[in-house]
Amino acid sequence: MKTKSMSMRAMSLTVIYLLLLGFGMTFLVGCGNSASTVGTVDKAQDPSKAEVNQNAKPLQGVSADRVPATANLSVTDLEAALVDDKGLQLIDVREAREFATGHIKMALNRPLGDLEKNLARISKDKDIVLIDLNGTRAESAWHVLVEKGYDQNKVKVLTGGMLQWRGIVSSAGSNSSADTNNSETKNSGDTEAPKPEVQEMVGGC
Question: What is the pTM of this model?
Answer without folding.
Answer: 0.60
